[in-house]
Amino acid sequence: MIALSDVSKDFVLHNQGGAVIPVMAGASLEVAPGECVALVGNSGAGKSTLMRMIYGNYLCGAGSIMVGGLDVARAAPREVIALRREVLGYVSQFLRVVPRVPTLDVVAEPVWAAGGSRSEGEARARDLLARLNLPERLWSLSPTTFSGGEQQRVNIARGFARSFPAMLLDEPTASLDATNREVVLDLIREAKAGGAAILGIFHDEAAREAICDRELDVSGFAPRVAS
Amino acid sequence: MTPLLQVDGLTKRYGARLGCGDVSFDLYPGEVMGIVGESGSGKSTLLSCLAGHLAPDAGRVVFDTRAEGARDVLTMSEPERRMLGRTDWAFVHQHARDGLRMGVSAGANVGERLMAVGARHYGDIREQAVDWLGRVEIPADRVDDRPRAFSGGMQQRLQIARNLVTGPRLVFMDEPTGGLDVSVQARLLDLLRGLVREMGLSAIIVTHDLAVVRLLADRLMVMKDGRVVEAGLTDQVLDDPQHGYTQLLVSSVLLV
Amino acid sequence: MSVQTAMDEAQVDQAQADRASTDQAGTGRHDPAYNFAYLDEQTKRMIRRALLKALAIPGYQVPFASREMPMPYGWGTGGVQVTAACLEPDDVLKVIDQGADDTTNAVSIRKFFQRTAGVAVTEATGEASLIQTRHRIPETPLTEGQILVYQVPIPEPLRFLEPRETETRKMHALEEYGLMHVKLYEDIAHNGAISTAYAYPVKVEGRYVMDPSPIPKFDNPRLESPAIQLFGAGREQRIYALPPYCRVESLDFEDHPFEASKADHDCDLCGCGDSYLDEVIVDDEGGRMFVCSDTDFCATRRALGHAGRLSGEALA
């Protein structure tokens, strides 16, 4: 479902003397449907960069990134947009929303964007928010004023509002208490059981062991810096 | 899928100075494209050329018309182009007063486009006007008030209602949130997002506000000195900018 | 008109002839200090060319090089120039202002042409070959061969909604008339009905939207006429026209159709029930009377013996 082959990436900082910073080289990996793979490696090793490249958020320097038959490295923007709408879900660490939009709408939006009805989206949002123990009085408020843990739960609910065939999870259990952490792990298990190919970053070792089929150390993708 | 709009080599000069040079892109149904750049970068010139308000010196703007399929807008007769401007196209100006008739009521402002395409039943026109005022969150009891009596945010929402009442397929927006308070901006952005999604609109939004394009636009073009220096997915261009100017633009945004 | 059918036609002719006999006959000579009908021949030819174009494109505003006339703008300089361009020595001229032959403006213009053209003048609508009018169409139906010249203050019906001339000309050219209905919409929204009572916009031959000059909308149905109708706007330098029998429709909405309304009274002098009326305040106690605005029409009826509510009373 997700297959990377010989992917590399440099950052070029034009406003700092054109400094070229190579961040990745020769990255290859595969995630099959129903499989959950954890990216591991030291902080700064390029786990998030790799995830962002798969999502199309960072440009790919070389190589190919196949997701559901589409090469994200070469795809036109509209193809990536369609991929994100239909195939590839992403739960980031940060919630980015229009201010003043109610939480319920934030969570339901991916359902509506995919053509789901108003009531369908709302029902799914209610179900997820309830499962994640977000107090119902908060649902009509904008999440911009919520605490870190509350925002993270809204973010997860939004990420799981639709069932995607492929998912990227960036620290989904960070800043959650034990109960909610368990709910999130259940959601991931359900997605796996539904056949989703999942690639994730989990600093939470117990969580990793609980749901991941294998680990992949990204240190091997670090570019060889000419010394 | 056929592109709704195909732009090819669009160039406009003001004497020796370049307004916009060799701009090409395709816009597909349902896509929202942002155009960013600082003042004088050519983004407003480009928008005016696209919308037919300004005649470019070279290039093609091919629109997929409902009746006749792909037509080059620039070689259309003026009546055809103006008809397009009242039916399939809409233009939201930065200053509401440029897009509204300030001397007539809110209802008449919304109804004008309907009457322009032949609506002749007062009751129906009024019903549609009230419905649209509701959709842009203007109370029905303000239908007979003139826009002069409205706040800036309300005027802008009225302009949007006036533009969308005939069910256009392509909306041009020039700094739609410029000059509004931030709290009013947020509400307008949410409204626009909802309408774009519900009506399946395509839109081209010119702005210098990167936060606006991040929330509204699927795709982004960055302009400098009349040229497109970078284009791509909005979040990709903003998070992994490739061109020096874009990197400068993104790193210059103040955070709160 | 029902009034016409009610009267014996011969009687009407006689009554009008009696009154016409009091009018000054044409001298056949004009004041030699002036060219015939004041304007020089080249100017008249220029205006006639504009008139022919206007007749060929009903309702279209033809620009013309309006001349300075010996009267202020707003007093009918456009109408006077059109009349001057149309007059022939054997024409019989009638001039009315709001239907009346005896108001300052009407008298002045009549005298102007008596002096500069030496033409015969009349107050009888049926006898006139050319009628210059301000703000009315005579009640007596016009006939083929007659010319009605309107004085027009603002020829552009779109002016109050769209101030740019460049834009209004484009709108006419492209038949973009949605804006006219915006005005009518506003009327209904604010007043519950179309409250435009005069200068009510019309569409001519299904093409051009035209301002019929500030005639009451009561007169609009009579814009479809056997006579030639010419419109002159001196200050705005525009001429437009309605050839005989051309189609003139008053704009409206399906659910608010056009109505030619008038005051709900009979004429207090001649008793006519379907003529357009002026309201006249007669004392300081709120006393009022309604009289035909068309003085010739009213006088002719009275000469035939028709009487209204106050016709017996002495009027100051």
From TrEMBL, chain A:
What is the top-level taxon of the source organism? Answer: Bacteria
Residue stretches in coiled coil: none
Q: Which Pfam families match?
A: ABC_tran
Q: Which UniProt keywords apply?
A: ATP-binding, Nucleotide-binding
Q: Enumerate the spans annotated as ABC transporter domain.
A: 2-226
Which GO terms fall under molecular function for this chain's record? ATP binding; ATP hydrolysis activity
By its UniProt entry, which PROSITE patterns does this protein fall under? ABC_TRANSPORTER_1, ABC_TRANSPORTER_2
Q: What family is this protein classified in?
A: Belongs to the ABC transporter superfamily.
Recorded protein name is ABC transporter ATP-binding protein
TrEMBL record, chain B:
The biological process GO terms on file are:
organic phosphonate catabolic process
Q: Which UniProt keywords apply?
A: ATP-binding, Lyase, Nucleotide-binding
**Domain of life per record:** Bacteria
Q: Which CDD domains match?
A: ABC_NikE_OppD_transporters
**UniProt-listed InterPro entries:** AAA+_ATPase (IPR003593), ABC_transporter-like_ATP-bd (IPR003439), ABC_transporter-like_CS (IPR017871), P-loop_NTPase (IPR027417), PhnK (IPR012700)
Any idea which GO molecular function terms this record carries? ATP binding; ATP hydrolysis activity; lyase activity
- Tell me any Pfam family this protein matches: ABC_tran
ATP-binding: is it a keyword of this entry? yes
All residue ranges annotated as the ABC transporter domain in the record: 5-250
NCBIfam families tied to this protein: CP_lyasePhnK
Q: Which PANTHER family match?
A: PHOSPHONATES UTILIZATION ATP-BINDING PROTEIN PHNK-RELATED
Name of this protein: Phosphonate C-P lyase system protein PhnK
Q: Which organism is it from?
A: Salipiger pallidus
Automatic annotation (TrEMBL), chain C:
What are the protein's UniProt keywords?
4Fe-4S, Iron, Iron-sulfur, Lyase, Metal-binding, S-adenosyl-L-methionine
Q: Which terms under GO biological process does the entry name?
A: organic phosphonate catabolic process
What domain of life does the UniProt record list for this protein's source? Bacteria
Coiled coil location: none
Q: Which InterPro entries match?
A: PhnJ
Q: Which GO terms describe its molecular function?
A: 4 iron, 4 sulfur cluster binding; alpha-D-ribose 1-methylphosphonate 5-phosphate C-P-lyase activity; metal ion binding
Q: What is its EC number?
A: 4.7.1.1
Q: Where is this region: Disordered?
A: 1-32
| Keyword Cytoplasm attached | no
Protein's UniProt keywords contain Ribonucleoprotein:
no
The reactions it catalyses are: alpha-D-ribose 1-methylphosphonate 5-phosphate + AH2 + S-adenosyl-L-methionine = alpha-D-ribose 1,2-cyclic phosphate 5-phosphate + methane + 5'-deoxyadenosine + L-methionine + A + H(+)
Cite a single Pfam family from the UniProt record. PhnJ
Similarity comment: Belongs to the PhnJ family.
Q: What does this protein do?
A: Catalyzes the breakage of the C-P bond in alpha-D-ribose 1-methylphosphonate 5-phosphate (PRPn) forming alpha-D-ribose.
Annotated protein name in UniProt: Alpha-D-ribose 1-methylphosphonate 5-phosphate C-P lyase
The organism of origin for this protein: Salipiger pallidus
